[in-house]
């Protein structure tokens, strides 16, 4: 009797050729397809394709809302941008995918899980670290990595085993997408001197082709999470999809960067995240209005650590849980509305308000006669503020002895 194995199946080249390979190794393959908002993907067609190429069972898990509510939400609250640019598109979906794979394995008495990651990528670590954490007894198969297939060899293998893969050797892009964005690599993109061609993008128009008039929209936030677009309440998954359309049509969210992978190599990555670009810019702007100074200055330290943990496959870790608790506590006051201007690739906050949590006092900030700031107190404050430096210099003369040199 063949052993059951659950395969994380996307319908692409890597996971499609993995099915006959696993069959040849003696496995009955259960293909698990996670619907996390891959725009333009026909889940029924992907499900049928898995059984067509040899899976004994094909399961579609509809998880868009869970992905948005439980995985995108922490990234928004933490302003999580890896190396200051990447909103963790692929890294975010992996913990949810592994959770579902392990659940399916338990439900079907499978004792192994397979993925289509290569030995050079981050996903192999994300998949296997989470599997080990959730059920260390599960075996792991990684045919693309362990068999050392090149891209060309995979395509040849697919043809030999009648695996229909809509890809050619001349343009072998590797694309991963979900609600939060789209990642593209391989092919012509592997040379960092090559500009990304038009067909490398799929969620946005070029800024040059965007409308000549700016678009404006209002985003309402509650506890750090957007809950309404232009006054219309909607669940987060729907709001993200709507914003992807609006922002993408204005050329917003394109990212072309050299990235430091977890495995230690540099890679050229092309990302699109229109909704993320708008939401995270608006979120940070609202924090500037509502967070107390010391919290606002300290939070970026935690943000960088939590961002690296997500990227580095440490979603399941005590440190991540502890840092997320800090992030959540800061978001209790991040309530209000931000008006965004979208124009030819730029998403800019132009106005913001918070009826309940704004720390901006116009009477303190003004230079008019309405000024309520006690300017007389400033002199004493400055003297006390500089007291430690003044005493040190009086004793040691580090700088004062150099006067006149």
Describe the protein's topology:
Layout: E1 3-8, H1 13-24, E2 27-35, H2 43-52, E3 57-62, H3 64-77, H4 89-107, E4 112-114, H5 123-134, E5 139-141, H6 143-146, H7 151-160, E6 174-178, E7 181-185, E8 215-222, E9 225-229, E10 232-233, H8 236-248, E11 254-260, E12 266-272, H9 274-290, H10 293-311, H11 318-330, E13 336-343, E14 346-353, H12 362-365, H13 376-385, H14 387-396
Parallel strand pairs: 1-2, 1-4, 2-3, 4-5
Antiparallel strand pairs: 6-7, 7-12, 8-9, 8-13, 9-10, 11-12, 13-14
Helix pairs in contact: 1-7, 3-4, 4-5, 8-9, 10-11
Structure, described:
The protein is an alpha/beta fold and 405 residues long. It contains 14 helices and 14 strands. The strands form 3 sheets. It has a 5-stranded parallel beta sheet with strand order 3-2-1-4-5, with helices on both faces. It has a 5-stranded antiparallel beta sheet with strand order 10-9-8-13-14. A 4-stranded antiparallel beta sheet has the order 6-7-12-11. The model has no long low-confidence stretch (mean pLDDT 90).
């Amino acid at each position: 009797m063949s052993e059951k194995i659950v395969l994380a199946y996307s319908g692409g080249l890597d996971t499609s050729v993995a099915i006959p390979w696993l069959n040849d190794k003696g496995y009955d393959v259960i293909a698990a397809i996670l619907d996390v908002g891959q725009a333009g993907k026909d889940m029924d067609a992907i499900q049928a394709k898995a059984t067509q190429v040899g899976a004994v069972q094909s399961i579609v898990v509809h998880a868009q809302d869970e992905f948005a509510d439980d995985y995108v939400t922490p990234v928004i609250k933490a302003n999580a941008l890896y190396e200051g640019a990447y909103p963790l598109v692929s890294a975010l979906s992996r913990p949810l995918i592994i959770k579902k794979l392990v659940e399916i394995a338990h439900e079907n008495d499978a004792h192994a899980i397979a993925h289509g990651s290569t030995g050079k990528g981050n996903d192999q670590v994300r998949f296997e670290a989470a599997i080990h954490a959730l059920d260390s007894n599960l075996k792991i198969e990684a045919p693309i990595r362990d068999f050392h297939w090149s891209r060309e060899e995979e395509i040849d293998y697919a043809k030999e085993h009648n695996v229909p893969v809509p890809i050619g050797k001349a343009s072998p892009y590797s694309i991963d997408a979900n609600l939060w964005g789209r990642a593209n690599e391989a092919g012509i993109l592997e040379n960092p001197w090559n500009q990304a061609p038009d067909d490398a993008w799929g969620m946005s128009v070029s800024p040059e082709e965007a409308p000549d008039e700016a678009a404006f929209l209002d985003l309402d936030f509650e506890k750090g999470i957007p809950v309404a677009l232009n006054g219309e309440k909607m669940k987060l998954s729907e709001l993200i999809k709507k914003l992807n359309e609006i922002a993408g049509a204005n050329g917003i969210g394109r990212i072309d960067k050299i990235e430091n992978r977890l495995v230690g190599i540099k890679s050229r990555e092309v990302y699109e995240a229109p909704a993320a670009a708008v939401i995270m810019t608006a979120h940070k702007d609202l924090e500037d209005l509502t967070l107390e100074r010391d919290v606002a200055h300290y939070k970026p330290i935690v943000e960088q650590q939590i961002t690296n943990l997500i990227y580095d496959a440490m979603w399941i870790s005590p440190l991540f849980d502890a840092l997320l608790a800090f992030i959540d506590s800061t978001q209790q006051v991040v309530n209000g509305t931000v008006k965004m201007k979208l124009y030819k690739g730029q998403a800019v906050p132009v106005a913001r308000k918070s009826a309940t949590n704004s720390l901006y006092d116009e009477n303190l900030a003004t230079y008019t006669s309405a000024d309520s700031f006690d300017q007389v107190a400033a002199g004493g404050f400055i003297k006390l503020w500089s007291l430690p430096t003044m005493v040190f210099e009086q004793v040691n003369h580090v700088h004062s002895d150099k006067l006149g040199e």
